[in-house]
Amino acid sequence: MTQTQPVETIPQPRHAPVAVPTAGQPYEYRRSPLVEPDWTRFPGWRHVTREQWENAQWQRVNCVKNIKQLRTVLGDLVDESFYADLEADQKALATMSMLVPPQMINTMVPFAPMTTEAFLADPIRRYMIPVASDRRTDWPSHPYASRDSLHEHDMWVAEGLTHRYPTKVLAELLSTCPQYCGHCTRMDLVGNSTPAVDKLKLTLKPVDRYDAHIAYLKAHPGVRDVVVSGGDVANVPWKNLESYLMRLLELETVRDIRLATKALMGLPQHWLQPDVVEGLERVARTASRRGVNLAIHTHVNHAQSITPLVAKAAQTALDVGVRDVRNQGVLMRGVNATTPDLLDLCFALQGEAGILPYYFYMCDMIPNAEHWRVPVWHAQQLQHDIMGYLPGYATPRIVCDVPFVGKRWVHMLTEYDRERGISYWTKNYRTSIESADLEALNKRYAYYDPIDTLPESGQAWWHAHRND
Prior knowledge:
Keywords: 4Fe-4S, Iron, Iron-sulfur, Metal-binding. By secondary structure, the chain is of the alpha/beta class.
């Protein structure tokens, strides 16, 4: 019997470890715990207490509505040139009047020295306090821009009730918000008139408007989903809002109710008031008992906006029984239209505040908004570039809200003329104004990229046809 001899191990020479270069990732995640910026860094709020800051009424009373009030807050932190720039915009270009809660101003340049340059560059400032130098002078508006770019008013079936999708309606309960965003898609109705825009007005008394909404829903059992908006529902006195929601919950055909409120971010103090929290719990409990999905949809555009107070407001809504708190942001150049900005925001929303990233809309084709808008190809690239980083359920869809069509994922176009920036889209349902249009589902509907993003040949084409 042969014995197996042990195998001799030959010593291997020792080499210094070789550093293997790594390419890294296009985006590197780093958790950023939420911090409430120090509001006392502003001269006008140097003596404001935490009790005042967290009071919703104090926030509303101290909203910045004009340049004089902004000066009081900022003091000499920014130069006179900024105020002149702002005044020029307010006098000729702004489609929304100024209304910015202290909470939102406090998220501008939150952790760096406040200077004129820093304030001008700040993403929250860029869309909440636009100045004339932000806007384009070659193409401030697209030739096909319009005040009601989505034709929501055209699709009113009762005052303030838009029926665009077969099973869903948008209920505009009022025409005011706690804050006015420069890019507001409802700039024809919401807020005070400006020198550039004489606003439409709701004419019915609220009680009559709400009655008309309920009557329409009773007569149209095919509608199962109601987005309750405005304006912003945070500006509806709570007892009136609760009454409206309870009436919706009495309709067996209504299965989804979504409350639209940017104030969850812009004025979280409102959603933390005891009477609002208790009322929301009553509505949520009733919705749960009747098998109705109750959600809050908010509107956050940048990670700077997410603070502990915002997270507390969102968690409180979830704690009292709201099924979901979701975010619908808007893509805007200079604000969030980069992959790092979007991913930073989504991680802050989902990981730190319990808010689900849901949609990012391409900025609508309203007047004086070309400096914010991005072309379809850019939105498509962003959708590609954010995939794979977030959980699938928290990966937002980037959509184009095409006039007369509605929301479409940005890759759903049927044809795209990149040179002239014209994309064509189709749809699979009729809006409330197309019930007799047999060809509505066979048409192609156009959407237009910002002209300054086109190649020179495309820009030349639009220059040649700008008066057509």
